[in-house]
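User: I'm putting together notes for a lab meeting next week and I want to include a structural view of one of the chains we've been expressing. I don't have a solved structure, so I'd like a prediction I can at least talk through. The sequence is below, exactly as it appears in our construct file.
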Amino acid sequence: MTPHRPAREVAIVAFAQSDHRRRTDDLSEVEMVMPVLHDVLRQTGLKASDIGFTCSGSSDYLAGRAFSFTMALDGVGAWPPISESHVETDGAWALYEAWVKLLTGEADTALVYSYGKSSPGSVRDVLTRQLDPYYLAPLWPDSVALAALQAQALVDAGHTDEPALAAIADRSRSDAAANPHAQLPGARPQGEYVVRPLRTGDCPPIGDGAAAVILAAGDRARELCERPAWIRGMDHRIEAHSLGVRDLTDSPSTRLAAERAGAFERPVDTAELHAPFTSQEVVLAKALGLDASVRVNPSGGALAANPVMAAGLIRLGEAAARIHRGASDRALAHATSGPCLQQNLVAVLEGDPRA
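Assistant: Thanks for the context. Below is the predicted structure for the 355-residue chain, given as structure tokens.
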């Protein structure tokens, strides 16, 4: 299958995120988002009025009220009127919408942000609402129980075991020690079983956080960033909604999205994978064909900080930031949504050749 070739050069030119915390009872969504927006604009020298398009990602289910994203617009400043959109999912999909907007030539710059506060309620229960409403949702299988089914399927198939999963957790959180925004930096004991075979260390932390990126096209990107992270390709695909008809040990949608994004044309040196559970990294690494030469989740990944609705956008931002500072030349970024890697987005980012 031929990868999609963007007709216009578009890059991530700035990335900012909050310090991810277990609770932010002292902050509203607006108060959590505003410092991140100010930071990402400061990096480029742009003002809100300079942005051609704004797109956000969040979930009303987390906030517990309808159209909650309209309140977060207070942090952006929607007057005078701006060109704005919103997706009810992770901010990685908001970035996809903004990327398409810039590809059409309707804008030269875009601001993308997302946020999530999981602390006010039980996120394991909230996430059951995305399941099939007739057969699965009435049973209330929570997100950890479903991930444990996937992990057990991997163990039974011989693709991994508990020591291998523990090694993933140890590596990820050890790498997160260098990430000042991480909620769980540094290696720690695996802890007790949450749902077998997953222990505490195999699961993501519950917490609150926000992230934002700025996109720019062509020469505008080069003006705003010394080394832009060019989006060479991006695609997203979805698995069947019913878990019973899927092979949970594989992710065909991730593989297809990566193929369409051009990820298999040349090796990548970095992969930021949105794998909230250690077992999901096993599935993704297999689907993406990643070997030991690829640095996986140098930021610590979702095991170190997993603000729901922002963690996927953070993977794209972290990959771009490594290109900005010269730590990577060609990076893959992945985001997921839904149970057991149901929806998957893959982007390939590159920096300009070094002199």
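A couple of points you could mention at the meeting. The longest helix spans residues 29-44. The first strand starts at residue 10 and ends at 17.

User: Perfect, that's what I needed.
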